[in-house]
Each structure stands twice: as structure tokens, then as C-alpha cells.
Amino acid sequence: MIGRVIETETCVAEGAAWLRSVEPRFGAALARTGPLPLRRRPEGFAALFDAIVSQQVSVAAGDAIRARLERADLFAPDTVARAPDEDLRACGLSRQKIRYARALAGAAIDYPALRHTPDAGVIARLTAVPGIGRWTAEIYALFSLGRADILPAGDLALQEAARMLFTLDGRPSEKGLRALAEPWAPWRGVAARLLWAYYRVAKEREGIR
After folding, report:
1. Of 41, 47, 44, 53, which is closest to residue 101 (Cα–Cα)?
2. Domain 45-144 listed as CATH 1.10.340.30
3. Which of 15, 45, 87, 171 has the greatest count of CB atoms below 10 A from its CB?
4. Could you tell me where in the chain the CATH 1.10.340.30 domains are found?
């Protein structure tokens, strides 16, 4: 069983209404954020490569690197595998991310099969590839596969948004945020969208593209 899949804005709105009913502070946050975005992305290599590019850099920096890679036609597994390190470095990839990009290009992931794989199996398959940690795998499951109950608790913007919304003494750890989010199942993926939206309005900057 793969659980609920978010396909449309109606799915997101259903999840938001449920979250509002179980946690009043989500209602207050939604009053500030307005309707939540769908945030669906295509499946496949490019989505995972984009997540690797975005690791540990700002949204603006990740966008700039991605644009350079696309202009250089270096956003497909075959072109990444053939490209000299110098070309990838010129686009803004670090030595480590070049290694990760090549590992992903050669991983032979069966992307269509992931659509029918339970969340835990998706995370396990993706994190077997060097450079794909749990955050990256969860971002893919959330945005490319539309899994409704995925919350990337290692995300710093989500942690900070939770701190502000729930008036915590400090930013929760990944483990702490997972524990806090347990009552939000089966809509933790919508809770993630809500917390990112709340981060944007509270901080006046994007927490994720």
C-alpha cells in the first residue's frame, strides 16, 4: 500500500482542512498563508539531480546552478555521465556534488516502479545512491511522487517554521520534528507545505523552491 497521493489543489485543500481541524495553530497559519500550493514536480533523473544541486545552498544559489546546467545541456543522465569534471564545475557543482551526479547518472533507477513502491521502499532505494540522503529522498517522494504523508523533518526551514508556529524554546531537531508531526498523519505532506508557506510569510523569504 502506498497511501494517499496528492494529485491536485483539491487534495491539498482537503489535507489543509483536516490539519486545521486537529490543530488550531494550523488554522492560524493558514489565515496568514492563504491556499497552499500543489508543488508537484516531474518524476525521474532531473528531479533528483535538482534536489542534489539544491543541497546545502540557498534557493537562489540552487536556481542559478540549475540554470547554468540547463544552458550547458547537462541535466540528463547521459550528458552528465559524459561531461568532463571541468564543465560541471563551471556550472557551480562542487567536487562532491560532481561525484554524486555521476553516481545518480549510473544508478539505473526504475523511476516508473517507484510510483507503486511504499514510502519506506522509495526512501531505501533512493538513499542507496551516494549523495542521496533522507532529505533528498523525501523531497522526491513528496513532490515528484505526491506522497501525502511525507515530511522531510531534516529541513531547516520546516524546523524553524515549527519553532515559530508552536512557540518552541528552540528549533526542533529532525527527531523532535518527526515526533511533533506524528499526530498530523496521514497528511504530513500537506503540513510540510503549510510550514514552508508559513516560513515564507514569517521570514519574507522562500524556504524551498
Report:
1. 53
2. yes
3. 15
4. 45-144
